[in-house]
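Board notes (copied after class):
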Amino acid sequence: MKFVVSLLIPLLTGAVAGFFTNSGVESWYAVAKKPSFNPPNWIFAPVWTLLYILMGIALWLVWKKEEPVPGKKQALWWFGIQMLLNFCWSFIFFYAHQPGWALVEIITLWVAILCTIIAFRKLSTAAAWLLVPYLLWVSFATVLNYSIWKLN
């Protein structure tokens, strides 16, 4: 059951965030100036779906550890924080049309992901590595967010 819940947490978060993303993509984002390295819109959904699945597996690897495990509670808190920040970015960037504030938020998200990786590493090397593609994608998204903010 923990495995299913671990997958559902990021996938449902992404699905709800996708609602806000779609409303922005169809409005201001469609006409916003974007850098030359901006990927096509169709790439985002499959990439995020894969990343959410990897996050869910990483969460499960940590959550399934038997109690008491030093650092487990902190690791789960970091996961929750970064998940909340992940959701908020879509809302700020796409729904509120605030790429400047979204840039501040995504930098905070990047730090929270790094803290999650560090906390997960103490409990499961595999869980930590499963979050590395997420950190890399958010790094790219940060550069993209910055470029869109500057261009608009």
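Comment from the instructor: The longest helix spans residues 2-25. The helical segments are 2-25, 28-31, 44-63, 72-95, 99-121, 125-130, 132-151.
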